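[Q] Does anyone have a clean structure-token version of this?
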Amino acid sequence: MHTINALITPKKNLRILSKHEVTQICDIGSKTYELFRRCAFAVLSCGNHSDDYLSSIEQFRQFDIRVKQEDRGITLDIKGAPAHAFVDGEIIRGVREHLFSVLRDILYTEDSVMSSQRFDLSQSEGITNAAFHILRNANILKPDNEPSLVVCWGGHSIPLNEYDYSKKIGYELGLRGLDVGTGCGPGAMKGPMKGATIGHAKQHIKTGRYIGISEPGIIATEAPNPIVNELVVLPDIEKRLESFIRLAHGIIIFPGGPGTLEEILYLLGILLHPDNIDMPFPVILTGPANSTEYFEQVNAFIGLTLGKKAQQRYEIIIDDPVKVAKKMKLGLTDVINHRRLTNDAFFYNWGIKIAHSFQQPFAPTHHNMASLEIAKTMPIHELAANLRRAFSGIVAGNVKEDGVTAVKKHGPFQIKGDPDIMQAMDKLLTCMSEQGRMKISGQYVPCYEIV
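[A] Here you go.
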């Protein structure tokens, strides 16, 4: 791979740092520096259509980035950057902004959240406040905007017809003045944003928002796509998921792999909490005509595990982008009315109850995966929480550094539980694998075994 050495100065985000912050990010042996280096390499790798962590190790070893403090601000000294992040020797502006967004979020999260005593991260309230402060520091929260943010979830590894369909959905949302938030990667995360840009352009909307929400473990294999104009990196998957829920005014879900199932189970587990039963929150599952079987399988799995009440919290619409956009726009009216009635903020959903079991960081080790309790006798929201953890572990084993390394060393994760649920889970995952939803690069080798 062709590489470039460059000096990069900020144009928008984080133009100055304190001496303490520069020392912190320049300490080569520190966790903060290594985290920034990994996330920076991911951002600069945008456009590299690979989700194989192991294949990028050698490229990453040659990459180096240092922060230089100068009289008028800071400069990033980069060596071994992927050449496709540059045009005629100049870094692409969007990539530059993503690079400094990453630096901003890593420094703020480490100093003001994780290492400080401002937030009690063992309690739900402290976790929710921490997510709020990270989002506010990133200027994601817009108090003057009426609810218009539609979060779109779906797979990074999808066929072309599903990608084109997600663009059509984004286009219809854009025509109706709605903004789009995604996990910021390729596939069903990029498609809605790309479509929305055209819809916004036709309506002469110049303030369209394309918000990308990531976390260090996933950004390495799902680099921010070039349409993202607001990027924020949360410290872990749980705070990332909570940020989606707190920011979103409605959610559209496209076909995807285990990561999409993780998101669905997280969302439904929260919506099934007794405190959230009457809260309007439009959720639509949609895809082109040939994704009908996929959604039938997902719907059946949800019915088996979480029951009819869970199925009633979403609507499945096949091959009709206009209907999806109209339904979502109508659903946002209910959200607006409810927020006004309950005096809740438009820009951050304080009112939704997220149980502590959905907020606790889950380390997908072999022991933790094998110890997950998955039984029909569990309270529904607790079962949803553990199923979410199981799918999160599979995602880690597929694409995240720690998970991939652990599976390579110790073999597949073992997942056990209720026989009916395990059989349905195995069937669903097998279908995802056969449909190519597990991995973009190379042949997929399962990182799990259903016991």
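[Q] Thanks! Anything notable?
[A] Residues 142-342 form a domain with the Rossmann fold fold (CATH 3.40.50.450).
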